[in-house]
Structures are given as C-alpha cells and as structure tokens.
Write a structure and sequence with these properties.
20 strands, 630 residues, alpha/beta, globular, Rossmann fold, 19% strand, 46% helix, six-stranded mixed β-sheet
Length: 630
C-alpha cells in the first residue's frame, strides 16, 4: 500500500493547468527526485503532497498516522523566535517541551532560584513521560551538524542561515515522508556534502526538487517528471532518465510531425471539392475534425532558452594581479598574504563556506574594496560585467522590460538593433510577462532576468556570483555551454559542484584563517587535492597559491605570424556566425526557396567547425606566448 498517492489530480491557477489528471504513488523507502522546467508546477505539487494546497480536482490519499516534514523553497514570514524554537517547532508538543527545557536550563545555569529549579524539574519530568530525551539529543546534534547557534534570533539571520534552520526543522522530526523543495539553495558546498550524506542515510521516504545534478545523481533511485501537466514516473537513476527522456522526445517529435503531415493532407482534400465528397466521405470528414481537435489540444514542450554573449575587443594578456593582499575587519582577518596572476582566458571558480569571504575576494580583485595590505593591479582594455551589481540594481517595482532595457522597445545588441520582445523570448519570457512587475516573478524567472540584463552588456571579463540558483536544468546547462565557449576571462562563485566541474579551469578555495589556496581544476579536483578535510583545513595555516609553471618553448616566426592572422579570422567568423544566427532565427527567412535555407544551415554548421579549430589553435599559440613572457 502506498504511503501517499494522488489520483486524477488537477491543479490550476489559469490556463493551461499546472497538473491535468495527474497520478502518482510514493512507496516506503523510496528516494525520488522531482524534475521539470521552471513554472511547470513542482512547488505546487509538493505543497499538495504536504497538505498545504488543495487540488482543483481529484483526490489525495495519505496513510493514517503518516508523519510528513516539508521544507519550503521560501522562508515562511510567520516563523519567529530563537533558532532553537524554530527547529524544535518541527516536533509539535514535544518541541514545545524541549524549548521550555532549553530556556529553563539556561536560566538555572545563569542564576538558580527555587522557582527556576522547580520549573526545570517539572519540565524534565514531562519530557521523560513524553519520551523526549532522545529527541532532545537529536535537536542538539542537528544544530551542531549545521553549525547553528540555538540562542540566535531566527528573524535577524541571513538567508543561508535561515535555510539551514528550516532544514534542521524538517530533519529532527524523523518523518516517514520528507519533502524538500530546492534544499541546496543558499547552502555552501560543505553543507551540501553533509546534506547529501544525511539523505543517503535517511530511512524514510524522500521526495525532493533540486537543480543540483550531482545531488540528484547520487540520491535518486526513481525520477518523477512534470511535463505539460502530466506526471510521469521513471524507475531508474538520474543519468538513465536523461538518456531515456531524449529518446522519448525524439519519438514524440516524429509522431507529431506525422500528425501534422496527415492533417495538412486532409485539409487540402477538404478544400478540393468537399460538396461532391461529403455524402460518400462523412467518416473522413469526422476524422479530420478529430485531427483538428488533437492539434488544438497539443501542449508543446516548453522552449529552450537561447543565450548569447556580445562580442567585444580582446583584453590584454594580464587581467588582474594580486600581491601579498590582506583584508579584514576588526579582529576578523578574512584574507591574508594572498597572491595571484589572472590572465586572459582563465576561468576561475571560488568556493568556501558561507561567510568565508568569497564575495569579498571578488570585490578586492575588481578594485571595489581596497586591501589593508598589499596591492591589486589590473590590465588594459578590460570590459567587466559583474552579475551581483546588476542583480542589486533591479527594482522589484519595475516591469521586466524596464529592468532589462530601461523601458526601450529597440536596443542595440552586438552592434545590431533588436526588439525587446524578441530578446526576452530568448530567455523564455512570453509577451504577456514582459510588462509584469519583477516582484511577481518566480525565483527561476528572476535569475533568468538577471542573465538577460547581464548579456545586454559586452564583456571580456565576466564575474558571476551564484548564477545558477533556481534555474531549471535545461537553462543551467545552456549557461554552462555558453561559459565553456566564452573567450574572455571568467570569475565564478558557485555552490553547484557539477557546474564548477564543467566550467572552471582552476579553483580558489577560502579555507579559513585568511588562507586562499589555488587548486587546478574544478570541485572534484579540489576534493582530491586538498590536503585535509574541510573541517580541519578551516584552521590550517595560510598557503601560497601555486605559481604557473614556466614553459621554455618560444613561438617561431611563422607561428607568430599565424597567431596575428588568427585574431581577425576569428572576428570574421564570429561576425558571420552572428549574421547566420539572426537569419535562421527570423521566421520570414523560411519563406525563401528551400535551397537558400539549406545553404544557410550548412554554412552555419561549417562556421561552427571552423571557429572551433581556430579557437583551439589560437589558445595553443597563446599558451606558448604566455609561457615565453613569464
């Protein structure tokens, strides 16, 4: 018997419905990951399962006595009190007793009196009768595991701390069913690793929504997908699901194509002599009506974002150089004796615990903060775009259009005029949402909005501070591909382990006590190279960043000429690629003869190949050139 099930459930806030006749069952001991595009209804489904949202239609069955814990994506505004109170609040009456005992014990420790001692004794007795001592230890252990101070006021803490508090609240109850909505949001990498281990040891049934592909890969033994109002179950791991889903979409596209061809054929037939054929072909006419109805009812797969950066003049070889940089506040040293040399084309990841100083390091490198000691130098021809600055400058009362293009309908993108509706459509904003207020957008939509604004600025140095929060996997992977192909310099702060693995070429880890250590590669490489576990390295002595090895080989005269010719060739190919991109994105272009479209497509593929070869050779020669200059 299922712990919880939905039968023929619909959830609708308008058209089309989020869920339309959905069925699902959760069995004991399963670890299920729920996936779907932004706006597909994942959060609404979780709220329905938790009992906080009544379905529009259908029914919800819950096994009697089932204990459910739910971690919402947003922090509930009604939660107040100390962190201990909020965490223990997940235990109902026993939680109230634990909170009372916690404060009574603190009062007695501060100053004992007969009244305080009597209160403490009473609460202790009630806890014993309620079998609450085991839960007391569970609360204390969870607070320690998540580095939470139970005495702190919950309402004054940062978003990351509040997220950890809500996670602790969901875990301490030891539920039969644990529902988690984006549990890694605002968590640092160390806490995400701890959470992953805790979920793997969880003995109940788990259902979580996450954009963290590594977490989904490690945890899930079943996948649920929301797609166009339907919930489908995939009894496999995450990677197998991704492969099978691609195959399913290919089959679906072929089926729809066949339907469209048949419909077009029947429409042609019905226009050619319907009066003469009606009496003998009423069945065929009725079949045509059914085909029309099928076409109207079809819900296409949500579109894919189309991300593209603007071209800009190349920067100099040296981007930033820090020498013996130290920075801190009163009695709080954040960075000590930090040195680095960042050159054009570097893709650097920055990781560390929340509050360790990742954003501070970015601001020091950018010159927004002055170091207490040491110096930071910058190269020439730098065009820097910093996502955090753009995010903070967006007014929630603005419309989407105003936030991206200052209210303009036409603006310049990569040297060409572009309409705001067409531009925002690339970021999955339909026309009916372009004039909506920013405040009404979902978390994923807001992050897409930041990216849309970000890409209106040309850059050769891109600085991204947690760009992946709330993005669906498809958009996240497109951003990933864009950054991998980015020819400028990238500084990236992220807690997404797979994103770091796939994008960055080296990593700066803030390891406490002022130490910033450089590691070659991404997250997995850092994990393999770090000398001690994170908890111990938090108090390790500062280490000098690795110095790039000297490469004695020098460019020949012929190679020097080849390198000089490659830069204008790349610019020319990039320009041709942009022109072809606009042609192929224009619906009017497809009204030309079929040969013209085919030629453009073939040339677009060829240009991509030529660019790949040119960039590979340019990077090879640039590496040799940089080595001979050191």
């Amino acid at each position: 018997m299922a712990l919880l099930s939905l039968r023929n459930v619909g959830i609708s806030f308008g058209q089309p419905p989020l869920l339309d006749g959905a069925d699902l069952q959760l069995e004991r001991g399963e670890r299920v990951v729920l996936v779907g595009r932004n706006g597909s209804g994942k959060t609404s489904l979780l709220k329905c399962l938790a009992g906080f949202l009544e379905p529009t239609s259908g029914e919800r069955y819950v096994e009697p006595g089932l204990r459910i814990s739910y971690l919402p994506q947003e922090v509930p505004i009604e939660l107040t009190g100390t962190i201990y109170q909020v965490v223990a609040g997940g235990l109902a009456r026993q939680g109230e007793l634990l909170t009372e005992y916690h404060f009574a014990a603190a009062e007695v420790a501060h100053s004992s009196s007969p009244g305080k001692l009597a209160r403490l004794a009473r609460v202790q007795q009630e806890l014993e009768l309620a079998d609450g001592w085991q839960l007391y230890q569970q609360v204390e252990r969870t607070l320690a595991d998540l580095s939470l101070n139970g005495q702190d006021d919950f309402t004054t803490r940062s978003g990351g701390v509040k997220r950890r508090v809500l996670l602790a609240r969901a875990l301490v109850a030891r539920p039969d069913l644990l529902l988690l909505d984006e549990p890694t949001n605002h968590l640092d990498i160390e806490t995400i690793g701890w959470l992953e281990g805790r979920l793997l040891r969880f003995e109940g049934t788990l259902l979580l929504v996450t954009h963290d592909r590594m977490l989904a890969r490690h945890v899930a033994n079943r996948i649920l997908q929301i797609d166009r109002g339907q919930v489908t179950s995939w009894d496999c791991d995450y990677d197998t699901f991704r492969e099978r889903k691609v195959q399913q979409l290919e089959v679906e596209a072929a089926n729809w194509s066949a339907l469209d061809k048949k419909l077009a054929k029947e429409e042609t037939w019905v226009r050619k002599g319907i009066k003469a054929r009606r009496t003998r072909n009423e069945g065929r006419v009725r079949a045509l009506e059914k085909l029309r109805e099928l076409r109207v009812q079809r819900r296409e797969e949500l579109g894919r974002a189309k991300l593209r950066l603007q071209r800009v003049k190349r920067s100099g070889d040296m981007i930033m150089e820090a020498e013996e940089v130290s920075f801190g506040y009163t009695n709080d040293l954040i960075i000590e004796n930090f040195g680095c040399r960042i050159v054009r084309g570097d893709k650097l990841g920055i990781l560390g615990a929340n509050g360790s100083g990742k954003t501070t390091l970015l601001r020091l490198l950018l010159g927004e903060l002055q170091p207490g000691a040491g110096k930071v130098g910058h190269g020439v021809e730098l065009e820097v775009v910093y996502s955090d600055q753009l995010r903070s400058s967006i007014d929630p009362e603005q419309s989407v259009r105003e936030a991206v293009a200052d209210g303009r309908e036409i603006f310049m993108f990569d040297g060409r005029a572009m309409h705001i509706y067409a531009y925002l459509a690339n970021f999955l904003f339909p026309r009916d949402r372009v004039d909506m207020q920013v405040a009404s957008l979902s978390g994923g939509e807001r992050n897409r909005l930041v990216l849309a604004r970000l890409f209106t600025y040309p850059s050769n140095v891109l600085v991204l501070d947690e760009p992946t929060n709330d993005l669906d996997v498809e958009t996240l992977e497109l951003l990933e591909e864009l950054l991998i192909g980015y020819t400028g310099t990238l500084l990236l702060v992220s807690h997404d382990r797979e994103f770091l693995n796939n994008v960055v070429t080296s990593t700066y880890a803030l390891e406490g006590a002022g130490a910033v250590v450089e590691y070659a590669g991404g997250y997995d490489d850092w994990l393999a190279q770090r000398p001690v576990p994170v908890a111990e390295s938090a108090v390790a002595a500062p280490k000098t960043p690795r110095v790039r090895p000297v490469r004695p080989r020098r460019l020949s005269f012929k190679e020097t000429q080849e390198l000089a010719a490659l830069e204008p060739l790349i610019d020319e190919l990039e320009g041709e690629k942009a022109v072809l991109f606009e042609k192929l994105a224009d619906a009017e272009f497809y009204r030309q003869p079929g040969d013209a479209v085919a030629v453009a497509r073939r040339r677009s593929t060829a240009v991509e190949g030529e660019l790949e070869i040119a960039y590979a050779r340019w990077e090879e020669l640039e590496t040799i050139k940089e080595g001979q200059g050191e």
